[in-house]
Design goal:
Blueprint lengths: L1 H45 L6 H32 L8 H29 L3 H18 L6 E2 L2 E2 L1 H14 L13 H25 L7 H26 L16
Helix pairs in contact: 1-2, 1-3, 2-3, 3-6, 3-7, 4-5, 6-7
């Protein structure tokens, strides 16, 4: 009996460490790669036909690498959460691919929107991001997270700091910080992001030089990429996101 209790205690500690490690790796990836991605896309938007094609190619490859890292870090984070949660199936290869494509498309659309808006309006990006960050931070606090709990005691000041850091990530992507249904959370978040993207792209389109070759393609790429990401998300939740307790009679997708 004692050996079983000790084994369960070690298992719980391992699960907790895995969750914390996955969260820290994800936040590190966001805080490092997300600003680089937006800066690289902003630099690409500033390029002209007279610039070296090799430099443009290298910058494009760097931007794609940053986007790949962000999408994969989120996929890895979600896989870790599923692996450590009771009642959740481990995601298969198809599920991981759909998750990756979902995050790749939605983050790419968001990053392009912010980069193009910055190209025309420059420092106006900061008030927008600060406003979005403030709203998202309040949302995270409202979820009553428990990042900084030790021996049953919650360090409120540290908890607020963690919530503020998570709020920064929400500028690009919604991070599920609690093991609870996210269907309505994703719906609300992507509705907000879509409205923001529409407003920012409209402002960019009105001020941008119509003679630039990407004037129309960029607009199409942003919205088609966002729509593709939502489609991949629906496919994932419809076919690859199942709980172990789910029966054949009730096949509706359950969120985390």
């Amino acid at each position: 009996m004692e050996a079983r209790k000790r084994k369960n205690a070690i298992l719980q500690m391992t699960i907790k460490d895995d969750k914390q490690t996955a969260t820290l790796c994800l936040l590190h990836s966001f805080l490092e790669s997300a600003p680089q991605l937006i800066l690289q896309l902003y630099t690409l938007a500033q390029r002209t036909d007279r610039d070296s094609q090799i430099i443009v190619f290298i910058q494009g490859a760097c931007a794609a690498s940053s986007l790949f890292q962000l999408a994969w870090s989120i996929t890895s984070y979600n896989s870790t959460l599923h692996r450590t949660m009771m009642g959740k199936k481990k995601p298969n290869s198809v599920g991981k691919v759909l998750q990756f494509l979902w995050h790749f498309c939605t983050i790419g659309s968001r990053a392009c929107t912010l980069a193009l808006f910055t190209k025309e309006y420059h420092f106006w990006l900061f008030p927008f991001c600060i406003g979005h960050w403030g709203i998202m931070t309040i949302w995270v606090m409202h979820q009553q997270t428990r990042f900084c709990r030790k021996n049953g005691d919650l360090h409120q000041c540290k908890e607020y700091m963690c919530n503020m850091v998570v709020g920064v990530a929400y500028v690009i992507y919604y991070l599920n910080v609690k093991a609870e249904p996210t269907r309505y959370k994703y719906s609300a978040y992507y509705a907000i992001v879509f409205a923001e993207n529409c407003a920012l792209m409209t402002l960019w389109f009105l001020r941008n030089d119509p003679g630039v070759w990407y004037h129309i393609p960029a607009l199409v790429a942003v919205f088609s990429s966002f729509a593709s990401g939502i489609v991949f998300m629906l496919f994932y939740y419809g076919f690859c996101h199942r709980t172990l307790k789910q029966t054949n009679e009730k096949r509706a997708a359950h969120c985390c």
